[in-house]
Description:
This protein has one helix at residues 22-28; strands at residues 6-8, 33-38, 43-48, 54-56, 64-71, 76-83. With 87 residues, it is mostly beta strands. It comes from Nesidiocoris tenuis.
Amino acid sequence: MVIDAGGTVRVNRFxxxxxxxxxxxxxxxxxxxxxxxxxxxxxxxxxxxDNNILASNFIGVDTEDTAKRWDKTKKKYIEIKRPQVVx
Length: 87
């Protein structure tokens, strides 16, 4: 029996994955994401600029769609890329 699970994670309590720093990811722009996959347990860990770190054992990041986010500097909605696990 396999239980599918996904949600936000406090990664610093378990291990230290090699994600980029928040400031470095913000320089790349909103919608930037980084992915780590554990092949032994089939767990995908995703760091996305517009959300916390997410982990899932049933949804990956195979496809990306777009999401609307408010841009404070432009004072309008912009379209950014969003990983499937964030949906």
